[in-house]
Amino acid sequence: MYLKPKTLSEAVSVLASSGGQILAGGTDFYPALGEGLPQGNVVDITTLGEIRGISSDRDWIRIGGLTTWSDVIRTPLPRCFDALKAAAREIGSVQIQNRGTVAGNLCNASPAADGVPPLIALDAEVELVSAAETRRMPLEQFLVGNRKTQRRAEEILAAVLIPRNIEDGASSFLKLGARRYLVISISMVAAILQPDAAGRVTDARVAVGSCSATAQRLRDLERALTGQLLKPGIGRVVAARHLSQLSPIDDVRATAIYRQDASLTLVRRALEACAERA
Ligand SMILES: Cc1cc2nc3c(=O)[nH]c(=O)nc-3n(C[C@H](O)[C@H](O)[C@H](O)COP(=O)(O)OP(=O)(O)OC[C@H]3O[C@@H](n4cnc5c(N)ncnc54)[C@H](O)[C@@H]3O)c2cc1C
């Protein structure tokens, strides 16, 4: 059965009663079916306008789950979101960015999801709504493995919430693929560096995707960057040991050794890009 609720409360009750699968932009949903048809009920949430768009209050910026990547690109946002915007511009093509949603990217939970490194660098949290309750958790906890999340079948990811504590941070996102355009990442890096008035880094966030089952923050590196002057040359702080927690695999796109080595270069370049923007 194909169901198309009009409000979030209708959607969560339809989801609970039908046990259906959620359909948003469909840009991961349909390719995953191959030549097949959806099995069981489908709950199309594309008309839930109340969970689309970006708003803010004093403490949080709220990205509705149904917000498309094109919406992210078009919305004026603080500087620390430059990495997220750059990632949005790299997701597929303009047609994919017009359909694909932020929640779809997160709930599909691909290790190569380009939206994840910038959002975990922003300390994003996810809001999960069901007929019974609304709960929140850090995105880093929500993503538990390759295609695995903590989402319960009856929950809709209604919003991604970003704390407003690093808004002036310079940020960058770099993606490496086998070609320049319309490509799945071999590695990608998001960096945010917040300097104080003297130009020293007070808050450093670095996340790497496509090199482990879920994207990872490099917290040892973040500690090493804190207190450094945010100026060209800051990339030299990075050493291979800062990336030792990554566990890249060999696959059709690249070998594990290449991924590890390329990620080191990407991290250095991402930090240099932040220094250029500071
Ligand atoms: C040609 C092509 C190129 C692509 N290139 C890239 C790329 O470069 N980088 C990249 O990261 N991705 C890429 N993608 C993947 C995809 O476009 C993105 O992951 C997109 O953000 C998925 O969003 P969607 O709304 O289409 O999700 P859908 O396909 O509708 O859903 C994906 C999954 O999430 C679930 N879901 C969706 N919304 C919610 C919600 N609100 N709450 C709970 N569960 C939900 C669905 O049930 C489904 O399991 C590409 C896809 C295609 C077809």
Furnish the topology, listing elements before pairings.
Blueprint: E1 2-3, H1 8-18, E2 21-23, H2 29-33, E3 42-44, E4 54-56, E5 60-64, H3 69-74, H4 82-90, H5 94-99, H6 102-108, H7 116-121, E6 125-129, E7 134-138, H8 139-142, E8 143-145, E9 148-149, E10 156-163, E11 170-176, E12 187-195, E13 201-209, E14 216-217, H9 219-225, H10 256-277
Parallel strand pairs: 1-3, 2-3
Antiparallel strand pairs: 4-5, 5-10, 6-7, 6-10, 8-9, 11-12, 12-13, 13-14
This protein binds flavin-adenine dinucleotide.
List keywords for this structure.
278 residues; alpha+beta; 5-stranded antiparallel sheet; 4-stranded antiparallel sheet; 10 helices; 14 strands; 24% strand; binds flavin-adenine dinucleotide
The average pLDDT is 97
**Are there runs of 5+ residues with pLDDT below 50, and where?**
none
What are the distinct ligands in this entry? flavin-adenine dinucleotide
Give me the count of strands. 14
